[in-house]
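Recall the central idea of this unit: under ordinary conditions, the amino acid sequence of a chain determines the structure it adopts. In this exercise we apply that idea directly, starting from the sequence alone.
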Amino acid sequence: MTASAGFAQGSDWTGAYGGLVASFNTGTNNYMTRIEGPFYLEGKTLGAFGGYLWGTGKIVYGAEAEVSVGKVYEVEQSDGYSYEDRFQYERFYDLKGRFGYIVDDFLIYGTLGVSRALYKSDIGQDENHTNPTGTLYGLGVDYKFSDRYFGGAELLRRNFDFYDVGQGLDIPGQINTLTLRVGMAF
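Accordingly, the structure predicted from this sequence is:
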């Protein structure tokens, strides 16, 4: 009887789902040649996600895709020169694997995946776009308000290491993200 009750509880999280996100980002860009750093990043993004979860007892696992847009930009440096709208990540495409554990109406999970960004550097009259691909990992928790609706929070770290043609520099970037999520099961 206990095993079937645990499976029923795990089943509450299984299936397709989707929703919306609002994210708050901080981090650094470290330029590897000619420029001292780090250059600090901040910004907000909004987006949407969708995925599918499978369950076995209290264990839940699955895959999720997320797209978010906004600006995560290099903030003003000590010389008073503003880098906003000149050096920034404008879009993120994330593919994540999720593995979690159910506790009452909560799903506590870890995530690991890949992230692709659109990075813009504006040097003089030239605007350059680069599409770095990196890794992401993090932890999250979702809370089920009803059979269909849930909300949650997720902490992510994205790591990028790419060459920006516009600046002629290698850029290792790290972005820390706090995401607030609301969604529904289908």
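Confidence is low (pLDDT under 50) at residues 1-11.
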